Amino acid sequence: MAAFRKRQKDTQPVPAMEVMASVLAGLGAAPGQGETRARLQQLWLNWAMVMGPELAPLARPMGHHRDLLLIGAEDAMLAQELHLLAGEMLERVNAFMEQPFFTAIKVTLLMGKAGLDKTAASKAAPAGSAPRPKRPEPPNAHGLYLEAMDPSSPVARAYARFVRQRG
């Protein structure tokens, strides 16, 4: 851990990067971790440019875990397609990062989650303002088929009860 000492009046100004590096080191951050986070943030903000117009709307960035890039897909079919394009996506992302930062890609389903890219941030609604989807109303039960059913059948009894509740 870096030792802090009182600045003498006759010393020169210290660059802000050196001060921030010592503060982050004091907090337990690895050297260069701040630069890496800033570069990752630039990747998320420039996702559309990095992936291109054909891949950006399909492959949504969800984050990373060490050297694993996490990508979200809308459905399973698209997830399979993105899995097959993982090599090309790795090349594009590592070229933007200017180093081999990621070694693999994991594609998962979005399941309503928003990605980290700029388009997801602009589409995201404020918390609590999104209306909940309404449950579909069950169909009206008229009991038309009840006459043709055996009254001792469990299915007929359940259907008769349903008709009484809905009628």
From TrEMBL:
InterPro entries: DciA-like. Residues 122-131 have a biased composition (Low complexity). Pfam families: DciA. Residues 122-147 are annotated as: Disordered. It comes from the Bacteria. This is DUF721 domain-containing protein. The lineage of its organism: Bacteria, Pseudomonadati, Thermodesulfobacteriota, Desulfovibrionia, Desulfovibrionales.
